[in-house]
């Protein structure tokens, strides 16, 4: 996968967001000075496929509290979700799924799908009554059976667009 460096990003931030090491990024990209990145620079992220090679994509509407799964640009399924509350809003932007963890436990339910923004993900819940509300710390909550279904379909590298 290729990441395009944005304003304010460092190699440490990029490594954290994609759950890889700075050393791996330096080696794969043959970076001679890790303190010298420029906006628009292309960084190869090891271990993730090109998102454009994946037929699935996800669009999340914060206001509608809905996650839409697309296959080849066509709506395949929609799921109700919970989103971040006002103080801990769900981040808006374009991300990818970078890894997953079954049975993370506690408030994360039966599945965690990490997004390419550290500390954020799509996950199940131990509080199904929260679905349809703005109550999370910024993550996307789903019913456990829905997140299991979603995780069985979408691979790591899947695009996730979060919109207001």
How does this structure look, described?
- This protein has 164 residues and is of the alpha/beta class.
- It has 2 domains: 2-44, LysM domain (Membrane-bound Lytic Murein Transglycosylase D, Chain A), CATH 3.10.350; 51-163, L,D-transpeptidase catalytic domain-like (Beta Barrel).
- Helix content is 15%, strand content 34%.
- The chain contains 3 helices and 12 strands; from the N terminus they run E-H-H-E-E-E-E-E-E-E-E-E-E-H-E.
- The chain has helices spanning 11-17, 22-29, 144-153; strands at 2-4, 42-44, 56-61, 66-71, 74-80, 83-84, 93-102, 111-115, 121-123, 134-136, 140-141, 159-163.
- The strands form 3 sheets. An 8-stranded mixed sheet has the order 5-4-3-12-7-8-9-11, with helices on one face. It has a two-stranded antiparallel sheet with strand order 1-2.
- It is globular and about 50 Å long.
- 29% of the residues are buried.
- Keywords: Cell shape, Cell wall biogenesis/degradation, Glycosyltransferase, Hydrolase, Peptidoglycan synthesis, Transferase.
- It comes from Metabacillus halosaccharovorans.
- The active site is at 123 (proton donor/acceptor), 139 (nucleophile).
- Pathway: Cell wall biogenesis; peptidoglycan biosynthesis.
- InterPro entries: LD-transpeptidase (IPR050979), LD_TPept_cat_dom (IPR005490), LysM (IPR018392), LysM_dom_sf (IPR036779), Transpep_catalytic_dom (IPR038063).
């Amino acid at each position: 996968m290729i990441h395009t460096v944005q304003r304010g990003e460092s190699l440490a931030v990029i490594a954290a967001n994609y759950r890889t090491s700075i050393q791996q990024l330096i080696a794969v990209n043959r970076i001679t000075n890790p303190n010298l990145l420029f906006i628009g620079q292309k960084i190869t992220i090891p271990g993730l496929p090109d998102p454009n090679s994946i037929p699935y994509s996800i669009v999340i509407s914060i206001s509608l509290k809905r996650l839409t799964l697309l296959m080849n640009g066509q709506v395949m399924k929609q799921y109700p979700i919970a989103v971040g509350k006002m103080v801990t809003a769900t981040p808006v932007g374009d991300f990818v799924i970078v890894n997953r963890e079954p049975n993370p436990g506690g408030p994360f339910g039966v599945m965690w799908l990490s997004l390419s923004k550290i500390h954020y993900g799509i996950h199940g819940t131990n509080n199904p009554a929260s679905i349809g509300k703005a109550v999370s710390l910024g993550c996307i909550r789903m019913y456990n059976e829905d997140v299991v279904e979603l995780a069985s379909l979408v691979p790591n590298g899947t695009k996730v667009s979060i919109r207001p």
